[in-house]
Model the fold of this input.
Amino acid sequence: MDPRLEQIDRQWRELSAQAGRLGQITAQLEELDRQRAERQARVEETARIYRREQADVDKLEAGGLRAFLLGLAGDKEERLSRERREAVAAKCQYDQAAADLEYLDRKARDLVAEKERLWDAKRRLEALSREKAELLKALGGETGRALMDLDEKQADLEHRLKEVDEALSAGERAEVYLGEVLNSLDSAGDWGVWDMLGGGLISTMAKHEHMDDARAGLPRAQRALSDFRTELADVGELHLPALEVGSFATVADYVFDGLFVDLYVQSGIRRTQEGVSEVHVKVLAALRQLRQTKAELEGELEGVGARRADLLAAGPLGLEN
Done:
């Protein structure tokens, strides 16, 4: 291969990857902005709920006519206990929403910093592409121009394939975490049925242990869904059908709410199972579509590689692949 062409080709491929990544970052930042607006609204909502619930606790603890009347009826301690549980639940929801918001902000800051490092990649790629095209034209005429077209097609396919692989990785991680939560909920439901039939202390403890496992796994599943949603943002031009990925985080929010309030009730376990299962099914559907798209891209890439090899073997350039 011509030494200068070899050098340009190496630099061109590197810059093509950087320019592709720059476009990917732009799409991901736009998606993170949408998620951040959702999380900010969630933080404000849970803060209001927590303040209201805590105010109810404070009123009962401070005494007054309402507390006095509840005390006469023998309901004060039970009511105070319930109000405290609801206040703790609201605080947990607020803390999780605030932590999710910080997580999104941190991801956005990292992407912005990466974008600043790559800001000049597109301009440099355009300049190098012109130089490469002129050199290929000088070395091989029509064959050189055709080779340049194939190189650009190959670079585009490789970038799109990388996007799909990254989305697949994020989706598979989300699917695993959701599966773990579902397993814990299924076990909690089974033990809950036994508990309702008089299973005693052992069944009650087992139910609560599995519910605690589910609750502990939900924030991890939530963030994995957020990551999946972000990765899918930059594969939108692949026209993947029927993914409806925008609903992932919203569905998850409503599911997670119920855990803190009524998961210890059997009906709460069932509702939570149904909600998590709905999200899980959507993730599986998205993964199927992504795997199909990956196979199609790999087929296209193989075809481009074969045509490029034919040009290099038959054309006047006399280049090595």
About this structure: Residues 1-156 form one domain. The helical segments are 3-62, 65-73, 76-118, 121-140, 142-196, 201-233, 248-262, 266-314.
